[in-house]
Amino acid sequence: MNQTVNVTLEQAFEQACDWHEQGERDRAEALYRQILAVAPNHPQTLHNLAILLQGAKRIEEASGLLMQAIEAHPNYAEAYMVLGNILTDLERYAEAETLYRHALSLNPRLTSATVNLSAALRRAGRGKEAELAVNEALEHDPNNPLLHAQLGMALRVQGRVQEAESALRGALAMNPEDDEARHTLGMLLQARGAYEEAERCYRQVIAARPAMAESYNALGCLLRETGRQEAAVEALREALRINPELVAGYNNLANAYTDQGRVTEALATYREGLARKPDQAELHANLAFSMHYAPELGPKALFAELRDWCARFADPLTPAQNPCHNDPDPERILNVGYVSADLKQHPLGFFTLPILQNHDGNAVRVTVYSNLTQPDWLTERARAAVDAWVDCAAWSDNQLLERIRDDRIDVLVDLSGHTRGNRLRVFAQRAAPVQILGGGCFSSTGLQAMDAVVGDPHQFPAGCEDQFSERILRMPMDNVIYAPPDYMPAVAPPPCLQNGHIIFGCFNNPAKINERVFDLWARILQRLPGARLLLKAKPLGDAPNRARFVEAFAKRGVEPERLLLEGGAPHADFLASYNRMDIALDPFPYSGGLTTIEALWMGVPVVALDAGRLAGRHSVAHLHAAGLPELVAAGPEAYVETALALAAEPDELKRMREQMRPALLHGPLSDHAGYTVILEQMMRRLWRDWCAARRAQS
After folding, report:
1. Do 376 and 511 fall within a single domain?
2. Spatial separation of the C-alpha atoms in residues 344 and 441, rounded to whole Å
3. Whether residue 589 has a cis bond before it, omega within 30° of 0
4. Domain count for the chain
5. CB atoms inside a 10 Å sphere around CB 21
6. How many angstroms from the chain centroid is the CA of residue 217?
7. Domain limits at 440?
8. Mean pLDDT by 10 residues, the chain (698 residues)
């Protein structure tokens, strides 16, 4: 009788497993429960039913079954492992680690426990320990493809990309069906710009596993990076259709909408993601950043959102007392640190390089903490200009915090604000005695622990202090300086002299071009019937984006043939395209920054509107620094009239074209040494204040 019952249970269990593997979850669950009705402590059934329930997000039921299995079978290693998986999903990594290690103590050859232990350590930011766990298992099982795949993933989070790629390719050579390894290889390839092979990886995974939302999400990011915006949106929507809980999908879809200038949809998507998971700092930061594109939002609303982010993610980390114990000598050489993800061919890279090259080695010692993953020629020049360079992109916030404190940095400068790759939560923990937000920022950080921001009289006019948590330190003219690249093209005469008509233009991000901008630009074109409008930006390389712009202008009576809509180009070619433009039209309320400076450097006058907020005053400051304050319009009517007045004076455009670059070369934007001296004086004053306060406390 007992033998008959056992055979029946075994057959039933095999049938339930078959249904489980085939995705017939309801039938599998029903049969698992029938087995447990006969044999309540059948370990494999408890184990498998727990896995099924975990997949259905029925966590409490799954945990209860596993605890039952452990109580009945204390040496059943698989039950400890699956319970560890549940805790990993809940981001309770330390508890999960304990369970995985116990499972391995019971069964050292349980490869899946090693794989999951490594994954938990990796997700907890402990990449080196994840690597060690896998390597220990590989000593006993050197040909296991799952272990090689996990090794690749552990190496990837440490930034050891070549080793990671080698391990992943090895895993796939042993097991071409490992979709997770292929997906991770795709991410590595994408990160180093090997887009075609990365795309093949994602599409292979999707073909094999159409329900793998993560690969649709990664594919969407790749399509966005390669200028296929509409296809990116479709892939990201599919990722969220498959898994509405994939919070990264909301972030990436909103970013894609922003690229297209669909800011209202972007903001709604960020908020939808936050409604599902309010603890996502990056998602909330991107919401706060993208709100600056919305013309209907004023400075108070924008600052309130930044403060909300800080209240959730930064303020709880800020110590009540400054924990730094640096030597409080007010006149010694200062250890200055810069934290940035953008010391490359990027606006902050162009603004910061001349500072790094002009610091006084007798006054400061400079360390850069670089959070970027794809260095370029500008990165190498920046590296050569400083005393120490630390690549920290693969580090956790705590690792970076400890390193900055170990380096005894006196003044720490943030160059990212709330943009991608920032380390604001390191600043929130007071990594250095004095902390400054550098020039080129688009807003306050909102941090209580950020002491000051480098400003100027134009972007930071008197009375704006309530929009900043930081103390405003004003440069005399502009809060940035600029050094053009070696490949900066020569200036050509204004094209209107040969064309016989004016070409207005804008090379800014389409996210800055909203309905109000369309309205004013259309009015200018209607008032000057022969004029054309040249718009150039990476997202405009995608036909659906161009169609949206054509439609927006058609609604305002501007014919498609008057529009020149172009995608991006290599930077040298991009700059040369200014020679095809007579007058640049600045967007609002988020104005051009580096784009404005580059236009001026190419001799193109820029008509700007003071939009009454920091992000809307970049061009105001740059035009004052260029000696062209008359190009700043106080309101919409003045903006239109200023553009038309310039268009009516081709000889004046020719004169400006000839004189602008020489004037800039002798103006504030090119006074690299003078700017850096003032910056060092600002740092020294803040340092002296800290030293005085420190001495007073002691």
Report:
1. no
2. 16
3. yes
4. 3
5. 9
6. 15
7. 321-474
8. 54 84 85 85 83 80 79 86 86 89 92 92 90 92 93 92 95 95 96 95 97 97 95 98 96 96 96 96 95 93 95 95 92 98 97 99 98 94 98 92 98 96 97 97 94 97 94 97 98 98 98 97 97 97 95 98 97 98 98 98 98 90 98 97 98 98 98 98 98 90
